[in-house]
Write a structure and sequence with these properties.
Layout lengths: L10 H5 L1 H9 L4 H10 L6 H22 L23 E11 L5 E10 L5 H14 L6 E13 L8
Antiparallel strand pairs: 1-2, 1-3
Helix pairs in contact: 2-4, 3-4
């Protein structure tokens, strides 16, 4: 089934995409998602909700692929899902950073999105995400213990903003 770009969906259905992703993550089937949306007063056809489900499934599958990459390898562009919203650059990578807050000593987990005009190696993704968090030391000092790539997207039919 072809993906429907997010910008072509009705505004209320577009706003429901975040909660729908959570529901799909928990295993909610598409017909139940359509019924749930109708109870909330959000109109959406089964085809539109199925397209959102398919895009979530494609995104979820890509996360497993890049988390196991070698540090000097790049993710396969052909296996990367296309973003359903416009991106800042050609590629967008989400990195999970685990570490400790230096002031409180507590364990924290942060998610950082790295946008790039070219496909990055896993090492470059991790280094950029770590540098970004280290640059924000004035807000809350954070010592990174582990950086794990979670997902990768490429600019799709929606294009990019810059």
């Amino acid at each position: 089934m072809a993906f429907i770009p997010l910008s072509l969906l009705p505004t209320r259905l577009r706003r429901a995409y975040g909660p729908l992703r959570g529901a799909f993550r928990l295993g909610l089937p598409v017909p139940d998602a359509v019924r749930m949306l109708r109870r909330l007063g959000i109109r959406g056809t089964r085809r539109q909700v199925q397209s959102l489900h398919d895009s979530y499934t494609a995104e979820a599958g890509a996360g497993l692929d890049i988390s196991r990459l070698r540090r000097d390898y790049r993710p396969n562009v052909l296996r990367m899902p296309e973003a359903i919203t416009p991106l800042l650059r050609n590629f967008s990578f989400t990195i999970r950073l685990r570490g400790t807050n230096v002031t409180t000593g507590s364990f924290e987990e942060r998610f950082v999105t790295v946008a790039s005009s070219r496909n990055l190696t896993r090492g470059e993704m991790e280094d950029r995400a770590t540098a970004l968090v280290q640059g924000l030391d004035g807000l809350s000092p954070f010592r990174v213990a582990q950086a794990i790539p979670v997902e990768a997207r490429r600019a799709g039919t929606e294009g990019r903003l810059l």
